[in-house]
Amino acid sequence: MFNPPDELKGRINLLRDVNDVINAALRYLGLPRCNENPDDLKKVQALLTELKPSVKSFAYESKELAESGEVDLAQIWNGKAYLARKGRSDLQYSYPKEGYTGWMDNLVVIKGAPNLENAKLFMNFLMDPENAAMMTNFTGYANGVVGSEKFVDAELAKAHEYRPPEGAPKPEFVKVCNEKVIKLYDRLWTNFLK
Predict the structure, then answer these.
(1) For the chain, what are the domain ranges?
(2) CB–CB of 22/36 below 8 Å?
(3) DSSP string, the chain
């Protein structure tokens, strides 16, 4: 199983996110996502129970905790990791060899929006390559706007957080699990947080 070194006891931050934590455990154990197999979930529970003494916090503020030195290991989103590393140069970012969850933010206009034309103008503004790059430079997160790369800060464009290094695993975009799995994960997560 997983046995963190003594110097990490009470020095780890995990995201306060049931799916990110459980999917990381499933990957570590070599088990499939959206998993409702009771034996597999017992293994996940055992792994998380073993890890718990090393966990200082469950928080989305991974950047702040890592940058301040409150934690030495953090489950963190790539853009936040880049910003934390800019504030604390001894930090390193790495991709788990077992893989990681891919994600993306999306923009939509709600059907029947009262200001449809303004919404379209705003979306067009955000998808302008220079504006998309400005948001990338501010947040540290990549964007999918063609032509924005030439406006991305050179330091960020070379960072591992922004562009995974050679040999890093490909991101896994996890499908939405069925209701049974969601309830099983919620029970497992609640037990972990006790």
Answers:
(1) 6-103+171-193, 116-154
(2) no
(3) -----GGGTT-EEE-S-HHHHHHHHHHHHT--SS---HHHHHHHHHHHHHHGGGEEEE-S-HHHHHHHTS-SEE---HHHHHHHHHH-TT------TT--B---------TT-TTHHHHHHHHHHHTSHHHHHHHHHHH------TT-GGGS-HHHHH-TTTSPPTTPPPPB-PPPPPHHHHHHHHHHHHHHH-
pTM of the model: 0.88
Contact of 125 with 117, CB cutoff 8 Å: no
C-alpha to C-alpha distance for 129 and 134, rounded to whole angstroms = 9
The pLDDT score that the predictor gives to residue 144 is: 93
Q: Nearest to residue 47, comparing CAs of 176, 188, 179?
A: 188
Q: What pLDDT does residue 6 have? A: 80
Phi, psi of 29 (to 5 degrees): -85, -5
Residue range 6-103+171-193, CATH number: 3.40.190.10
Average pLDDT by stretches of 10, the chain with 194 residues? 75 94 97 97 95 93 92 93 94 94 90 94 96 97 96 96 93 95 97 92
pLDDT of residue 9: 83
Give the residues across from 55 on adjacent strands: 12
Between helices 179-193 and 18-29, what is the axis angle to 10°? Answer: 90
